[in-house]
TrEMBL record:
The chain crosses the membrane at residues 6-27, 54-77. Belongs to the cornichon family. This is Protein cornichon homolog 1. It is found in: Membrane.
Length: 86
């Protein structure tokens, strides 16, 4: 019971971090579109977030697999496979 609560809290914060990362990337691309940033600066800012995003997504998928939450694992699996192929 306590592990399920810990899993839900952990997955909530990891999902929140992933959404914040995507939101930051969209803001950077919007600044690029409005000519506030040059393309090199934008790509540097976005590329810094790619590897941590991949690691968080993969660890969340593995965490769902280990704790036998099959539905959430199957939802996270296609994105994790896509990240692995990249």
């Amino acid at each position: 019971m306590a592990w399920d609560l810990f899993l839900w809290i952990l997955s909530f914060f990891v999902s929140l971090a992933l959404v914040a990362s995507v939101f930051y990337q969209v803001i950077c691309l919007t600044d690029l579109e409005a000519d506030y940033l040059n393309p090199f600066e934008t790509s540097t800012r976005i590329n810094r977030l790619i590897l941590p995003e991949f690691i968080l997504q993969g660890s969340l998928c593995v965490l769902f697999l280990i704790t036998w939450h099959w539905v959430f694992f199957l939802v996270a699996l296609p994105v994790t496979c896509y990240h692995a192929m990249l």
